[in-house]
């Protein structure tokens, strides 16, 4: 097969960030706390902790992050130098509506993103905006239990409309909720949904995030409210500007059965349906898929929250594109004895054919092609974008300030080769924004030590570092990849 020139001419090469992992300035210019500001730093072996208020003397990485708030001009210039065609950022809801339920937006917050889009425009970079990337205003968590309340739908739609109206001539690509499907598992309930809760938790008592109480009934109800909020935003967005492209964003962990044992095959099918397919089916097709109802029944979830009115809203607010993150595949086994490994939101059984990253994630470039093929078969009606993919590793700064991150180049190169093959096989892939083009705080462990960037940020987990930026070897490599439209890898 000839893979020359297989990327479309206007392919959207770039990178992706999230507000709470990059901006810092957590209480500046009118912003109030968001749910992400309540979670401490951790490591691979030390969990991130939570208390229902900020505990003095404790390190909260989002409060400073990499100070993108004050370095964005410099950073976007570096993205421009690499030749980015697209930059995916998220807007921090608590900058625009600091308490979530305010009636009027915070002008200073709106201005910050005006500046970002103006910088992007300078370098010919198309912005893509996620409205809600794993955080909601903390006040909404406290007062309304996040998306468990129908009121939060109303607040989200007000926020979405405000952003659409303000930025309609600057932003065309929008995503409503980051990795919305993570809410299908207990570990994913706290972040975007705002279900940070545990009865009797004292104000200063820090507990591991994983120890928060999970209530599947509330979690699926809150997820339903997110679907409704997203669909209402999609419909409103199309009224504001007909050519907006608004997408779903799904965390794809490609699951393989560990063995041909039919028990493993069926367990894997269920896992793929609930985790990978369910949310995309609702958002692309506009209705709940049949298989989810038996899952609800098996798990004693009363789904009377799916009203006729909501069904109509979902049908009217279908997304225009399918976007997803891909870092790894995992295996499913029904044998309790098999070895397990980690993952960004959930781990799985060890695949003996694959290597692991330093954080114990399977490295599986072919899994990306497999996933792209699956998505195309399932949703042939919409374009697809990979909006997160990357290698979180430990970088060493040499005495001459160079950083030879060949492992990162290797990882990205192999994934891009599989994208080429997928495109040749007919996948309508329109863009690729790799994760963390500049080092940012890790969401899973809350540390800076795990780095994804083409650009190094001098900031350490003990709070030291002057936030200066340095180009890694991968910076020059990615620049070449973009300039050659994916030919020179
Ligand atoms: C994705 C999230 O799941 O994984 C990002 O959307 C996150 O916010 C990324 O940073 C990588 O995970 P981690 O834990 O290495 O930061």
UniProtKB/TrEMBL annotation:
Keywords: Glycosidase, Hydrolase. One of its GO terms (cellular component) is cytosol. The keyword Lipoprotein does not apply. Gene3D superfamilies: Glycosidases. InterPro entries: GH (IPR017853), GH_1_N_CS (IPR033132), Glyco_hydro_1 (IPR001360). One of its GO terms (biological process) is carbohydrate catabolic process. One of its GO terms (molecular function) is beta-glucosidase activity. PROSITE patterns: GLYCOSYL_HYDROL_F1_2 (PS00653). It holds the Pfam family Glyco_hydro_1. PANTHER family: 6-PHOSPHO-BETA-GLUCOSIDASE ASCB-RELATED (PTHR10353:SF122), GLYCOSYL HYDROLASE (PTHR10353). Belongs to the glycosyl hydrolase 1 family. This is Beta-glucosidase. It comes from Liquorilactobacillus satsumensis DSM 16230 = JCM 12392.
């Amino acid at each position: 097969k000839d893979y020359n020139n297989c990327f479309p001419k206007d392919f959207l090469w770039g990178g992706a960030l999230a507000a709470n992992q990059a901006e810092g300035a957590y209480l500046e210019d009118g912003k109030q706390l968001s749910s992400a500001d309540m979670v401490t730093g951790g490591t691979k072996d030390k969990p991130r902790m939570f208390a229902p208020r900020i505990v003095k003397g404790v390190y909260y990485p989002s409060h400073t992050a990499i100070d993108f708030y004050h370095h964005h001009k410099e950073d976007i210039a570096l993205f421009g130098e690499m030749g980015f065609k697209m930059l995916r950022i998220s807007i921090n809801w608590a900058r625009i509506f600091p308490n979530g339920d305010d009636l009027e937006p915070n002008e200073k917050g709106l201005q910050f993103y005006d500046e970002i889009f103006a910088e992007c425009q300078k370098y010919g970079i198309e912005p893509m905006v996620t409205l809600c990337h794993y955080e909601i205003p903390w006040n909404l968590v406290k007062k309304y239990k996040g998306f468990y309340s129908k009121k939060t739908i109303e607040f989200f739609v007000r926020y979405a409309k405000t952003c659409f109206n303000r930025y309609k001539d600057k932003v065309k690509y929008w995503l409503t909720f980051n990795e919305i499907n993570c809410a299908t598992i207990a570990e994913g309930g706290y972040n975007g949904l705002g279900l940070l809760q545990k009865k009797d938790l004292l104000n200063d008592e820090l507990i591991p995030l994983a120890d928060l109480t999970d209530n599947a009934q509330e979690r699926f109800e809150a997820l339903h409210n997110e679907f409704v909020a997203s669909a209402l935003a999609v419909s409103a967005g199309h009224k504001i500007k007909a050519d907006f492209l608004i997408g779903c964003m799904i965390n794809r962990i490609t699951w393989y059965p560990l063995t041909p044992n039919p028990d493993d095959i069926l367990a894997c099918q269920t896992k793929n349906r609930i985790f990978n397919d369910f949310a995309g089916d609702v958002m692309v097709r506009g209705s709940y898929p049949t298989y989810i109802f038996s899952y609800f029944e098996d798990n004693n979830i009363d789904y009377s929250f799916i009203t006729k009115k909501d069904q109509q809203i979902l049908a009217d607010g279908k997304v225009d594109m399918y976007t997803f993150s891909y870092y790894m595949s995992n295996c499913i086994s029904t044998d309790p004895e098999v070895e397990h490994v980690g993952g960004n939101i959930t781990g799985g059984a060890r695949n003996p054919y694959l290597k692991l990253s330093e954080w114990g994630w399977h490295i599986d470039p072919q899994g990306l092609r497999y996933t792209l093929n699956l998505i195309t078969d399932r949703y042939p009606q919409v374009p697809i974008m990979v909006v997160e993919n990357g290698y979180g590793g430990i970088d060493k700064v040499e005495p001459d300030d160079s950083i030879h991150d060949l492992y990162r180049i290797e990882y990205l190169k192999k994934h891009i080769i599989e994208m080429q093959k997928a495109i040749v096989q007919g996948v309508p892939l329109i863009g690729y924004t790799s994760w963390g083009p500049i080092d940012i705080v890790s969401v899973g462990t809350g540390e800076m030590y795990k780095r994804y960037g083409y650009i190094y940020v001098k900031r350490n987990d003990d709070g030291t570092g002057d936030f200066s930026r340095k180009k890694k070897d991968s910076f020059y490599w990615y620049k070449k990849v973009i300039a050659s439209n994916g030919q020179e890898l």
